[in-house]
Design goal:
The protein is an alpha+beta fold. It is 26% helix and 28% strand. It has one helix at 4-20, and strands spanning 26-28, 34-36, 40-46, 58-62. A four-stranded antiparallel β-sheet has the order 1-2-3-4, with helices on one face. A hairpin with a 5-residue loop joins β1 and β2 (34-36).
């Protein structure tokens, strides 16, 4: 369970990404909250999830390929 502040940030980021992805992209929710088409597109990783390398907030990043 995420703290309320992190959950709100994750929810807003997920919604923004989902609204702007092409329809063929699918969401895979795991510990890392990956969003992908045929390849990984971005990551949304709350700091309370272990092994993220961040101490507070939410990591939001994109892969360049």
């Amino acid at each position: 369970m995420l703290p309320e502040e992190e959950r709100l940030i994750v929810d807003v980021l997920r919604q923004l990404v989902k609204e702007n992805l092409p329809t063929y992209c699918k969401e895979k929710i795991s510990t890392t909250f990956l969003l992908y088409g045929k390849k990984s597109i971005c990551i949304i990783w709350p700091s309370t999830v272990p092994r993220g390398g961040i101490k507070s907030g939410v990591l939001f990043g994109f892969w360049l390929w």
